[in-house]
Specification:
8 helices; 202 residues; alpha+beta; 2 domains
């Protein structure tokens, strides 16, 4: 999706309705700076307020995501194109999150092991040696919790019994036995347990 084009379209529709950025922001319960970012193509409206924004601008979501008014005959085709573009964007964001999870955990493990190695083989007072090992363990533990939170939010888990894709809670993800990003969990739809793989889109 072309954020610059969408931003210009939002600005144009807002002016057609004769309202300022500040007035639109007030109606939506956000800051006028957020509206300014949309109109300059620096960000996109949150999905939670898209319908309300479209209502104020007298357009539909498909036109908003296309950045232009759509003729009736080409509406279905543009809707499909926009859905595919949104799916690709979601997949890419989820890939970035999972890469970030990998780098956070890898960095924490390497740093933690380096600290433990240093504490074990370098001549240090006993209290400092113990302190460093405890610090390394705590650091790895904390970063592991952060990494699981990132993995839980990025994409979905797919039930191997019924194929249902869903986002489990943080603690369901954290406490589930796992190998890599495949976790043994109970499906909320069929209520059977299986090894559920991480997938990027629904």
């Amino acid at each position: 999706m072309d954020q610059i084009k969408i931003g210009k379209f939002i600005a144009s529709c807002r002016k057609e309705q004769g309202i300022t950025q500040a007035a639109l922001a007030e109606k939506l319960g956000i800051s006028d700076r957020a509206v300014s970012k949309w109109e300059t193509g620096k960000s996109m409206p949150d999905s939670g307020i898209m319908l309300e924004l479209c209502d104020f601008l007298k357009i539909n979501v498909n036109e908003l995501l296309s950045g232009e008014r759509i003729m009736v005959e080409s509406y279905d085709k543009r809707a499909e194109e926009n859905l595919l573009a949104m799916r690709e964007e979601i997949e890419e964001k989820n890939r970035l999150l999972l890469r970030m999870e990998y780098w956070i955990m890898s960095t924490a493990m390497i740093a933690g092991l380096a600290i433990v190695f240093t504490a074990s083989f370098v001549e240090l007072p006993a209290w400092l040696r113990v302190g460093l090992i405890v610090f390394a363990g705590a650091m790895i533990f904390i970063f592991a919790f952060i990494a699981v939170g990132i993995e839980q939010k990025a994409g979905y888990y797919e039930c191997q019994n019924c194929g249902f894709r869903y986002v489990p809670t943080y603690w369901q993800t954290n406490l589930a036995p796992h190998t890599g990003r495949t976790r043994y969990m109970k499906c909320p739809k069929c209520e059977k347990r299986s090894w559920q793989k991480k997938v990027l889109t629904k």
